[in-house]
Amino acid sequence: MGDGSHPGDLALKLTDTLHVAKGLGGEGKISYGSLLPVASALNLSRWLYRKAQARMNMVISSRMRSVMLVGLLTLTASAACILPVRKIIGASTLSANATAEPAPAKSPQGAVPNPPGGPAVQTPAQALANGEGTGSMALRDVSNAVSRGAVCNDGSPAKYYFRPGTGSGNRVWVIHLQGGGFCYDKASCNQRKSEEPSFLTSNGLPANRQGDGVEAPSPSRPSDFSSANHVFVHYCSSDLWSGDRGASEATGGRQFRGARIFQAVIDDLMDPAAVTPSPNLSQARQVLLSGSSAGGAGVLVHLDWLAGQLPGAAIWGVDDAGWFVDVNSIGPSVPSPRQMTQQAYVLWGGRVDASCAAANPGSEGVCYLGPVVYPYIQTPLFVQIAQYDGPQLVGLGITLPLDDKERSFALDFGKAVRDSLTPVAAAFSPATRTHGLLQDEQFWTLAIDGVSFQEALGNWIFHRPGPIKLIGAR
Predict the structure, then answer these.
(1) Which of 6, 74, 122, 260 supports an S-S bond with 431, CB 3.0-4.6 Å?
(2) What is the DSSP letter of 34?
(3) Where are the domains of the chain?
(4) 110 contacts 117 by C-beta, under 8 angstroms
(5) How far apart are CA 132 and CA 46, in angstroms?
(6) Which backbone phi and psi does 12 adopt, to 5 degrees?
(7) Cβ distance 132 to 226 under 8 Å?
(8) Can you tell me the distance from the alpha carbon of 140 to that of 24, in angstroms, rounded to the nearest whole number?
(9) Kind and range of the H or E run holding 359
(10) Per-position pLDDT tens, the chain of length 474
(11) Distance of CA 172 to the CA centre of its chain
């Protein structure tokens, strides 16, 4: 819906058609593992198909083209919405357990520091008037990636895209972590290799990419960061940007080096011999660390660490649809997010937010969950999460057609999302089934109470009048 909300009491009624090709495996068991896209046959879902294939960073295999899931969520006294559904491969039979951890007191997250030296970013109009904010992003190799252990699952060197800032934006940086799911055991990693090979390697990447949303280089869609330095880090480690484990029999011969990749990229951006002589990241005045889906979870892992590396800059984080809610799954045959992330943490040799890890010895995997780790994060953080996030609902065991239990579960999940955002000072949560918005046209167009994600984010960062926390109607 245009305002990002659903009026009425959200009594969900699902009208759907489900066509599933035989032989896909999993037998209806669903987990948070490697997210696989599904194309819709309806013209109405043309947007979903394009975003699942491009923006949501998934590769549709020939095998999955035979899967047609068409879900039409119609809400009482409201327009219909399409629920993007993904087949998730590889389920565990662990029982659910979702107890909460105590968290320390912390300073208010909404307190965004004023940039050192005053605002450094031009308004979109100023950038356009000065001819700034255009150009594509060029592919770069991480320097000496293999010797530094900054490698993909298959051992290929990590890579990223870069577009230098112009004018007043040359001391402003936007560093974005790509999303694309994860795997948590040998079976799900084998499935990921079969269905999503581009997310295990840096081989075959195009030489250039054009950004959208917050990265928009086009004068027709400028953002507050049009003239900034833009970095887009390719995701190829399958570990929520957090692993630091070499290949072995236990890992199925795969490297899990997401943490090293991130830190190597940051080191390169600060090295005058690697990317740009001056001003480089070490001389930044403002830095926005963002990530979508799995990349958003990576922001939660690395935000405070990055702030420690750049004490002279104003640092902000944006978790775009990587806010995994701490809930039980729909049934005991489907692992909960808490169970899944703990298993993944062990497989990857994971690193998580240091203060959260210290408070949860032996259960560090819970620190991938947004509501658990948030109280420990000291750097200002903005959260974007839809109340009926499609991949999360499917990962929790929702299947089509929805029965009464699943309808009730979806409504309870929406409430859990809203409740999880209670302590969050800056957030955008539409009552929709959308996923990532930060690098999409809906960054500007999807609104809650007439305010878009782009406007709310700008209000928060630049201390503009206007709301910084918007929660769509129930």
Answers:
(1) 6
(2) S
(3) 12-88, 124-471
(4) no
(5) 32
(6) -80, 135
(7) yes
(8) 37
(9) helix 354-359
(10) 444 543 333 333 332 222 222 222 222 223 334 333 322 222 223 333 333 333 333 332 322 322 222 232 322 223 323 233 222 222 222 222 323 333 333 444 555 554 444 333 444 334 333 333 446 899 999 999 999 999 999 999 999 999 999 888 999 999 999 999 999 998 889 999 999 999 999 999 999 998 888 888 656 666 789 899 999 999 999 999 999 999 999 999 999 999 999 999 999 999 988 888 889 999 999 999 999 999 999 999 999 999 999 999 999 999 999 999 999 999 999 999 999 999 999 999 999 999 999 999 999 999 999 999 999 999 999 999 999 999 999 989 998 788 999 999 999 999 999 999 999 999 999 999 999 999 888 999 999 999 999 999 999 999 999 999 999 987
(11) 21
Q: In what order do the strands lie in the sheet with 80-82?
A: 12-19, 68-75, 80-82
Record the tokens describing residue 149, joined without a space.
């252990």
CA distances from 271 to 158, 276, 383 (A): 17, 8, 30
Residue 428's beta-bridge partner residues? 384, 470
Q: How many residues does the chain have?
A: 474
Widest distance between CA atoms in the chain: 61
Single out the residue of 377, 393, 292, 371 nearest to residue 326, CA to CA.
Answer: 371
The pTM of the full predicted model, rounded to 2 decimals, is 0.77
Amino acid in the structure at residue 110: G
Give the torsion sign (CA, 355, 360, 364, 365): negative
- Other CB atoms within a 10 A radius of the CB of residue 358 amount to 11
Helix (H, G, I), strand (E, B) or coil at 384: strand
Q: Which neighbouring-strand residues pair with 117?
A: none
Q: Is it true that domain 124-471 has CATH number 3.40.50.1820?
A: yes
Which residue is listed with tokens 């990447």? 205
